[in-house]
Give the backbone structure.
Amino acid sequence: MHTFKKEERLGNKKLIDELYHNGSSFLCYPFKASWLIVDGAQVVPAQILFSVSKKRYKRAVDRNLIKRRMREAYRLNKQQQLYEVLNAADKKIVFSVGYIGKEITAYEFIEKKMQKLLTQLSTELVK
C-alpha cells in the first residue's frame, strides 16, 4: 500500500478554497498543515496538497526537490500513521502541507518531521 495515486492528490479548487478558509491548521516545523473533515464521497481516506513558497525558493528545481522529498516521506508513512486512524474513526479529510523551512534539508530530516506531523494530525482528528 506504499503508493501515491491521483485520487490521493487534492486538485479540486472549491475544496482547496474551503480548506484554506474553514479548515484548522497547526505548525510542525518545517511544515504548516491545514486540514478539514469532509463528508463527500471520497474514494480514499485523505487527499493531500503539497506546497512550497515561490517567494522563499525562487528556482523551480529547489521547489520541486522539496516537494519530491515531502511526497516520498508521506507515501511511505501514510498507511500506518494516518489511514488506520481515519478508517477506524470512519472519517475522510483533505489537508495541505506547506514547507516553511528556511533551507533545503536532507530527506531523513523531512521524513522524521513528516512522521511527527502525521502523528499530530491523527491525534487532532481523534479529539
Q: What stands out?
A: The mean pLDDT is 95. The first strand starts at residue 24 and ends at 28. The longest helix spans residues 60-89.
